[in-house]
Amino acid sequence: MNEVAGQFSADWEPALTEAPRAPAFIVTLYGDVVEPRGGMLWMGTLIECCAVHGLNESLVRTAVSRLVGAGRLEGVRIGRRSYYRLSDAARDEFRDAARLLFSPVPAPDDWLLCLSDGLREADLPGAWARLSPNVAIAPNREDVAPLDGILMRAKHLDGHGDLRSLSRERWALDDVATAYESFVKRHSGLLERIDGGAHLSAAESLALRLRLVHDYRHAALIDPRLPRAAWPQDWPAERARKLFVAAYVGLSDRADAYVGAEFVNNDGMLMARNEETDRRLFQLKREAAA
């Protein structure tokens, strides 16, 4: 893997010219590559993979130490080698993120309202937003947890009030749009390279897929995924989603082959593919064909 470190230039691929933050990128690496293949990775492999993205060994070791301190990674020493896996709490969080990336819940049609005096001092979780001190609203999706209080289901009546302005204000949708637009700008050249038959090595394919996941994950995690009627004009979420799906599928054969050839865990090598990685790809291919 060392021979590919630092070979990506601005002329080759804009997505790889700016180094990511080490802790966040390590989280991406575990979510995309390591967790679906058992969860354990040798520190040496982690260092080599991060070097391709401009993260030196010192940065990686510091980031891993902080992730361990935060209870997100756990270390295992076997002989002279150190291996790291996700903690149980982080594993549950990763599963939720994986569902968002690989099998997202469709956009809802209506809303949830919660009425409770207890909302006055509460920090609202997830996609919930405050309408008044004792009223909160959220998109009515199966993955949105209800709040304690009187819960109602509501539907917006067309022609009554400016729902788009309300949603932009309450959920800071301008920030979400900026994240999606940045993702599209950074990765828009990928499909042309893939569809045009550009030669991408297995190492390059994995590097590009990791940055694709890293940038899309950032945007998708801050997206409240509201009903379509609340989307601002020219909402970029669908363009970003189509780019993510097509590029991930197009890069995965070679990227996964590289994982199977180069990534080391406590049992030897990570598998190139398994039931979980095949399931992810199947879901994305089905989405692309819909």
UniProtKB/TrEMBL annotation:
Signal peptide: none
Protein name listed in UniProt: Transcriptional regulator, PaaX family
Record-linked Pfam families: PaaX, PaaX_C
GO annotation, biological process: DNA-templated transcription
Transcriptional repressor PaaX-like C-terminal domain sequence ranges: 171-259
PANTHER family referenced in this protein's UniProt entry, alphabetically: PHENYLACETIC ACID REGULATOR-RELATED TRANSCRIPTIONAL REPRESSOR (PTHR30319), TRANSCRIPTIONAL REPRESSOR PAAX (PTHR30319:SF1)
Transcriptional repressor PaaX-like N-terminal domain mapped to chain residues: 22-89
